[in-house]
Amino acid sequence: MLxxxxxxxxxxxxxRLATPIALTAVGASICERSGVVNIALEGxxxxxxxxxxxxxLLTGSVWLGVxxxxxxxxxxxxxxxxxxxxxxxxQVVSGTAINILAIGVTGFLIEMIFGRPGNVGLSDNxxxxxxxxxxxxxxxxxxPVFDFPVGGTGALAVIWRWVDTIFFSYTPIVYxxxxxxxxxxxxxxxxxxxxxxxxxxxxxxAADTVGIHVLRGRxxxxxxxxxxxxxxxxxxxxxxxxxFSDSMTNxxxxxxxxxxxxxxxxxxxxxxxxxLFGFVxxxxxxxxxxxxxxxxxxxxxxxxxxxxxxxxxxxxxxxAVAPAAVGKPYKERG
Amino acid sequence: xxxxxxxxxxxxxxxxxxxxxxxxxxxxRALRDKAxxxxxxxxxxxxASVAIAMMIGSLFxxxxxxxxxxxFSALFQGAFGSQRAIGETLLRSTxxxxxxxxxxxxxxSGLFNIGAEGQLYLGGxxxxxxxxxxxxxxxxxxxxxxxxxxxxxxxxxxxxxGLMKARIGANEVITTMxxxxxxxxxxxxxxxxxxxxxxxxxxxxxxxxxxILPRLNTLLPFLQPTRAHTGILIAIVVAVVVWLVLxxxxxxxxxxxxxxxxxxxxxxxxSVSSTIIxxxxxxxxxxxxxxxxxxxxxxxxxxxxxxxxxxxxGIAVALLAKNNPIGVVAAAILFGALSAGAxxxxxxxxxxxxxxxxxxxxxxxxxxxxxxxxxxxxxxRKKKAVAPVAV
Lengths: 334, 391
Fold this sequence. Notes:
- The structure holds two protein chains of two kinds.
- By secondary structure, chain A is mainly α.
- Chain A has one domain (2-143, 156-316): ABC transporter involved in vitamin B12 uptake, BtuC (Orthogonal Bundle), CATH 1.10.3470.
- Helices cover 70% and strands 1% of the residues of chain A.
- Chain A has 14 helices and two strands; from the N terminus they run αααααβααααααβααα.
- Chain A has a two-stranded antiparallel ribbon with strand order 1-2.
- The longest helix of chain A has 28 residues, at 214-241.
- The radius of gyration of chain A is 21 Å and the shape is globular.
- Mean pLDDT of chain A is 88; it is low at 127-131.
- By secondary structure, chain B is an all-alpha fold.
- Chain B folds into two domains: 22-64 and 353-391, no CATH class; 87-351, ABC transporter involved in vitamin B12 uptake, BtuC, CATH 1.10.3470.
- Helices cover 74% and strands 0% of the residues of chain B.
- Chain B is built from 16 helices and no strands.
- In chain B, α2 packs antiparallel against α15, α4 (83-108) packs across α14 (325-349) and α5 (116-133) runs antiparallel to α6.
- Chain B is globular, with a radius of gyration of 24 Å.
- The two termini of chain B are 20 Å apart.
- The chains are: A mainly alpha, B mainly alpha.
- Chains A and B meet through α5, α12 and α14 of A and α6, α7, α13, α15 and α16 of B.
């Protein structure tokens, strides 16, 4: 049975399932490094998934869908930026408001556009024609980038199948996510921009004194985290699920915050921590297939990612040090 | 520049007076003015927030091609239009008072118990389980026993996040949220499995009559029969108790002190970590009570979707009430009314109930960003100010 569980598919599924969490965690580390807590990521991912699905359906282009996902998320991220940076609201409370707003607005718009609540599949065209006055196109989910031949027998062919599945079986946003994790880690620690950004989260007053624009820098960071959460939403709706359903993000935004902490506020670290969550999720899905052999109720499998989050936090948090000024609004000297 | 002195009517002498003031006095006066403006704002912002949120909600209703006037009048009818409607509002306010108190107690202690929904489920679970066990006892023993066990269950569900916060500083927003998901799945497992009433429907057994909270109209026979139950009275009593605890007990004093300034509290001899644990457990217990009154008052049993997000609405309730336990009762009735009227609004004005979530989010947003208002005041003031005050 073990050989049926430990397959290349399991690892590929881990990476796929980790991607929305990982993208969001990378954004979260940029945001928190600048001194802004972004609890709104859950909601930003949700509006991303929603915007992506709707625009893909209306235009027939999944790529416009991806762009719309990022834009929708950026729009909501701006709300968080205005509230937490300019208006100096409590950042956690503002984030919570945006999470609730995201659920409300997406649900409301679904009923407005489709005349009914519930799920929207990518190839769905129920009633939308009359309601929007715009034909809905049949769209398929985004396909994997590579399609190498994997036939043949023998040891080499088996190794190639493992390699192909684990490294070359993914959809574009998965690769974009890996690239962004590496790029943003480099940018945060090896560029002037990164140094300044980190200064904002450690000692904004000092940064301000030497002429760094604290508020502007934090805005950029919040927008980056919004764009990342939007991409995560696009990955979820346009690459994985193939549509939108109410509250489909299911706590991934919060898990991403935990992954960011486990990754010690390093974008790449958050990515790697997310892989752990992806793996546990992939494993629990796989184990559910063997429910007749392993007699454990499915609810316990479904709990696993959340239990893991708590365990990881319990193990890591004491030793990981958050940016000193995270969560504290800053008033520029003027 | 505002002036509360006796020279209000004479602008010239007022001006002279301002000129004669030393810089220190002027600064003191400015601070006092600001304090009094702040006090007024603190009372006004919740009302303004609700009004602005309703207006933005209207825009959504307009955008969907419906009439906001029709929608809101249907909403009002559905919430207060008849005794039945008022009963429905009270019914929905009951758990919101308790989750609002849960969040408010947390906020007062500097804790954001975003996972109240999970603690509510655990409270409901305890009520459904213990309620059957104690059904043979007289109601005045059964009901308190059930409530206490629900409080304990909710508190237990908040204990580990509290411990993690106190010992290693793990963010309670993440941990209570995770426990909320875990709790939902645990309850789901139990009602499909060991606690199922074996009817094929995933639910627990019906509570015996002694474990049920009677309807309000059985207690007060002059009322028409509605679904409102005596849980509302329990919730109000709990609100008063929470108010008293916060105001007059050492427990409440320590909670407020830690919420206000943990470092100073520690220096003053309060154990911050044990206060954090106690506060989060009390918050969880209050959320657990909310689950219990739903099970004991509305459904008589527990099933998967028995809460319509009361734990999350509790956040809005607490914030709107500025974490004042008595204000929580009023805010809960407002949100209860919105929730009760939403159905009528959907039926009669064809407007999606989701607009309520939007309004709720905007209220939270505005209450949190009360600086919007103070910022506007500050700005108009800066323009008039003569000399900049050194920071």
